[in-house]
Amino acid sequence: MIINTELENKGNLFPSKIIDFKKDVDKLYFTADNDVILELTVVRDSLLRFRYTTVGNFKNDFSYAITKYASIGYNKLEIEEKENTYEIITSKLRCEISKSDMKISIYDAIDDVLISQDERGFHWEESYEHGGNVVKMSKVSRDGESYYGLGDKPNHLNLKGKRYSNWVSDSYAFGKDTDPIYKAIPFYTGLHQGKAYGVFFDNTFESSFDFAHERRNVTSFWAQGGEMNYYFFYGPKMNDVVESYTDLTGKPHHLPPLWALGFHQCKWSYYPESKVKEITSTFRKLQIPCDAIYLDIDYMEGFRCFTWNKSYFPDPKRMVKELLDDGFKTVAIIDPGIKIDKTYSVFQEALENDYFCKRADGDYMKGKVWPGECYFPDFTNPEVRDWWSGLFQELIEDIGIKGVWNDMNEPAVMEVPNKTFPDDVRHDYDGNPCSHRKAHNIYGMQMARATYQGLKRYSFPKRPFVITRSAYSGTQRYTSTWTGDNVATWEHLWIANIQAQRMAMSGFSFAGSDIGGFAGQPQGELFARWVQLGTFHPFFRVHSSGDHGDQEPWAFDEDVTNIVRKFIEIRYQLLPYLYTAFWNYVDHGTPLLKSLVLYDQDDVQTHYRTDEFIFGEQILACPILEPNAKGRRMYLPKGKWYDYWTDTVVKGGREMWVDADIDSMPIYVKAGAIIPKYPIQQYVGEKEITEITLDVYYKKGKESSELYSDANDGFDYTKGRYSLRNFSLSGKSKQLIINQHKEGKFDATFQKFNIQFHGLPFEISEIYLDNEKMEIEPFDSEKGQSIRICKNFSQLHIKGKEVIK
Ligand code: GLC
C-alpha cells in the first residue's frame, strides 16, 4: 500500500529519548534508545543537514544532487547540553534538540526568533509492501506562513494549502492540477514574519509535500523509502535561501554560449532538409531574429538515436554548415530508448558491454517508445555515461550540431499503465545498486549529465548546450530545460509564467515553455502574448507538435508577425543585460527571474502575487493572460518605476491599471537602472558590436547596475578573460554622476557607450569625463538626450542648466 497521507496510517513510529551524544568535527550524532540516530551536520552557519536512521547505523552517504563545489565551513559552533535539550549555536542559527523525543526547533541566533519547529518531527512507518520504511517529517505551519518552490508544479505560486508529490512523469497535455509532472525538485522556501528559510529533502524515492493541506497548522514531507535526509537553509532573505540551495546543488558549470539566449524555433518535426531551409530562410527574409533551429525525432533513421534518415537529410554535415553560415545553430533531439536491432551499432555496443537496464530477474528492461521496442542504457552507471558521451563525436565534432535536446528521459515508456519502468528494474546508482524506486527521479538527470559530458568533450573549445525534460535537484549544473507538453490555451500561458518563476526559485533558472503551446493550436493573439512572455524567459523557444498546424511567427496574420518581430528584437537588444544576469546566476546562484515575493518579501502584498516578476535585477514584466485585453491591473513593487514604452515614472507599492494593447505588454524599469543594450541583430554574432547603448534611467538618489562581457562563447572567461563593469549612479536635481568600476582582463570589441538618458529633469549643460570638461554635444534620441563616450571612463559627471518643464 502506498501511503498517500502523512496522517492516514496509525502505524507511525517515533524516536525515543536521546541516550548518547557524540561529536565528530562538523557532525553531531544523537542516539535514541530505540536505535534511531540523528546525524546533524553543520554545513555552514546558516545551513544544517539532518539525517536519520532507524537501524543504528547509516548507509553509504551518496547524493546526485549535492555538488562537490558547494561552499562549506562555519564561523562559530557551540554545543551546550541543557537539562532538557542540546543546543547547537552558529553565528546565524540556534538549534534546539529535545532530549525526550528528538524534536527540533530552530531560532535566529541574533534576535532569537523561532524560524521553524518540528510538529511530530521525524517519524516513520514500516512499509510491508517494500520491506523498508516510509520516512516522514512534520513541522509546525504558522498563521501567515507561505511556501514557494518545488520545481515545475503547474499551479499557484504560493504552495500553501496544497499537497504535491515528486515522481517525474511524462505528462502530455498536463493540466493546472496535474501532479506530478516532469520534474522532481524537493526543495521549498518558507516565509513567516519576514524571515525566509528553505528545506531540501534530498531523497530520490517518490516523495510528497503537504503544505498545511491535511492539517491547517502542519507542513509535512515524506518519502516511500530511503532516509529522512534534509537540509535546512536560513536567509532571512528569500534570495539568500535560493542562492544557498543553488550553491549546494550546483550553479551551472558555465555560462551558456550567448546564442543560446537568443530565439529558438522548433517543431515536431521539420523535415526534409528543404523544409528546414524554408523555415530558416523565411526568418531571414522577414528579418525576424533567430539563432537556433531544431531537429525532432524524424531526422533519425527509424527513430534510432545517432543515425540520420538519409532520404530526408542526404548530407547533414553540409546542411548544418549552410545553416550555420546563415547564423542558425542546429539542435538535435536524442532520446534514451535504443531500438532493439542487432544491426544497429549503438544497440550492439550497449548489449555487448552490458550497458542496458535489467529487471530484477535478469531480463532486459524492454519497453516501447518511438522506435518500437527498446532497451534503455543505465545512465546511473559511470561507465555507461562515459560510453554515451562518446557517441556524440560524429554528431558534434563532425556534423557540427551545436546543441542536444534530451527528451522522454523520465524515462517514458508507452502503452504500459505506469508509463515508465516497473519498480524492480535495477540500477548501478554509481556503485550503490538499487531498484528503480530509488533511481527513477534521477534517471533523466543522469542522461542529461552524460549528454552534457559528450557535448563538452566534442564542442570544445565552444560551450556545450543541452536541454532536458526530466530533472532532479542539481540538474541545473549541466543543462537547460523546458516545461514539457503544454497546451495552446490561455490557462497554459498562466501556467508557463508560474512554472518559469517557480523553476527560478528552485535553483533552475534556465527554463522556458513551449511557446504557443505544444498540443492544440493557438490563435494569433495567444501566440503573440506568449512570445511577449517568452521574451522574458531565460530559455526562449517556440515548439509545437506536428499535428496541429504551423506555429512560426508568420503562421498567423501580419500583425502577429510584426508583434512577434518587435518582441524578439527587444530580446536581442537586451542580450547584454540578460547575459549579465546569467553571469550572476552562474557566479552566485542568483535566480534570473524573481517573483515579487522574492524581490520584496517584506511587502506582504507580494506573497500571493503570481503574474508579475523581475527579469534579471531591474526590469519588471507582467504578461497579459487574457484574450481581448487592452491592458490589465498589476502590482508594482515599492520604489519608482519607468514605463518602458513611455518613460512615465510611477510610484510602486500599489496595484494599478496598465494599458497594453496586443502590440504591447506591461514592462517597467527600476528608477536609477542602467540597462545595457545591443543593436538588433538577426543572430548573435551577425554584427561586430562596436557600441553598446546604456539606457540610463535618472533617479534622485543612488542605484548600481552591472555589465558583464566576455567572448560570448568558449572558456577563456574562466581564466579571467571577462570584464565586469559596475556602474554606480547618483542623481541630484541638476546633476548626475555615474562612476564606473571595471574588473577583469577582457577587452570587448565595443569601444563606445551610447548613453541615452531617460527622465533627466534638466538640460545637459556641461559634461565632465574623469574630471575633465568635454566638448561633447548631446544629441536627441528617441526618448531624450544622449551622448556618445569612450567605454573606459571612470567618472561621468553631467551638470544641468534649467529644469525642463
Ligand atoms: C515529446 C516531447 C516533445 C517532442 C515529442 C517528439 O512529446 O515532449 O517536445 O516534440 O516528444 O519527439
From TrEMBL:
Residues 589-675 form the Glycosyl hydrolase family 31 C-terminal domain. InterPro entries: DUF5110, Gal_mutarotase_sf_dom, GH, Glyco_hydro_31_AS, Glyco_hydro_31_C, Glyco_hydro_31_N_dom, Glyco_hydro_31_TIM, Glyco_hydro_b. CDD domains: GH31_glucosidase_II_MalA, GH31_N. It holds the Pfam family DUF5110. GO terms for molecular function: carbohydrate binding; hydrolase activity, hydrolyzing O-glycosyl compounds. GO terms for biological process: carbohydrate metabolic process. Residues 38-210 form the Glycoside hydrolase family 31 N-terminal domain. Keywords: Glycosidase, Hydrolase. Residues 254-581 form the Glycoside hydrolase family 31 TIM barrel domain. It comes from the Bacteria. PROSITE patterns: GLYCOSYL_HYDROL_F31_1 (PS00129). Residues 691-759 form the DUF5110 domain. Belongs to the glycosyl hydrolase 31 family. This is Alpha-glucosidase. It comes from Winogradskyella arenosi.
